[in-house]
Write a structure and sequence with these properties.
By secondary structure, the protein is of the alpha+beta class. The protein contains five helices and eleven strands. The strands form four sheets. A four-stranded mixed sheet has the order 6-8-9-7, sandwiched between helices. The chain has a three-stranded antiparallel sheet with strand order 1-2-3, covered by helices on one side. Strands 4-5 form a two-stranded antiparallel sheet. Strand 10 and strand 11 form a beta hairpin. Helix 2 runs parallel beside helix 4 and helix 4 crosses helix 5. Bound molecules: 2-acetamido-2-deoxy-beta-D-glucopyranose (2 copies).
């Protein structure tokens, strides 16, 4: 095992199947032209989503959330009422790193984070030769959202421990109004590929999925209404 410190990145190379790369700064990865670093580069490319991939994942979440916030989400004719307090979701690299850490060693069972602290959606599928990490993650997000279309909205618009057995836990995590940040990792393990997304603000039992009422009328503290989307966007104090 060799350790390299590279321009804002901490990278640990495991020779063999395991690749592991922690994004710790800004700017592109600069690699030396050696066999070892090429291996490293391939593994990191596979393990980490591209910026376009991250944007697509976040946008898919915010599209669902915006449609809900504006009272336009349609489940087979059941048009959901608008949301007063739906946060806009942003990408968080720390969550992405933690999500990736849960799968980079290809465990037989993927450990979940403390459910009181961090939400977690997991999808494992068969590997498809032509697909890259972005493809798997985008497919996972679309699969999760489809739970609402297939199974309907959570009873009483309320988060309960039954959501998992009803096959609604992942979609509900995508839609939970108080969730404001997320990050995902993707790892190929043999013939399987795992996508794991972590969410800041996990599902909280007995909470409403969102508060119904006038769009944006009750944005949480430090959030302001983004009119085009009807989402409550985080606003830094003093700006
Ligand atoms: C909602 O979806 C149903 C089909 O599932 C469709 O018939 C209906 O027109 C849609 N309503 C709106 C307002 O889009
Ligand atoms: C939904 O809410 C109503 C009114 O609060 C309650 O009586 C009912 O038991 C709830 N249904 C479920 C399935 O929790």
């Amino acid at each position: 095992m060799k350790t390299f410190m590279l321009l804002g990145f901490l990278c640990i190379i495991f020779i063999g199947e395991l690749g592991f790369c922690l994004h710790k700064g800004l700017g592109p990865i600069k690699l030396f032209e050696t066999e070892q670093t090429q291996t490293f580069s391939i593994q990191c490319t596979h393990a980490q989503l591209t910026d376009a991939g991250k944007t697509a994942i976040v946008n898919a979440h915010n599209k669902l959330r915006s449609t809900l916030a504006q009272g336009k989400y349609n489940i087979s004719g059941d048009i959901r009422r608008a949301a007063t307090n739906m946060k806009m979701i942003g990408w968080n690299d720390d969550l992405a790193i933690k999500a990736y850490r849960s799968i980079y060693q290809c465990p037989s069972n993927i450990a979940r984070p403390n459910p009181a602290e961090t939400g977690c959606n997991i999808r494992v599928v068969d590997a498809v030769g032509t697909q890259v990490a972005d493809d798997y993650a985008k497919e996972a997000v679309a699969f999760w959202e489809k739970q609402f279309q297939d199974k309907g909205w959570p009873v009483n618009n309320t988060i309960t421990t039954d959501l998992a057995s009803q096959g609604l836990a992942e979609a509900t995590q995508m839609a939970f109004s108080l969730t404001g940040a997320m990050g995902c990792g993707v790892q190929k393990c043999g013939s399987k590929v795992a996508t794991v997304c972590y969410y800041k603000y996990p599902l909280v039992n007995n909470n409403k999925v969102y508060e119904m009422g006038t769009t944006c009328s009750r944005c949480p503290d430090f959030h302001v209404c983004n009119q085009p989307t009807g989402l409550c966007a985080y606003q830094q104090v003093g700006k």
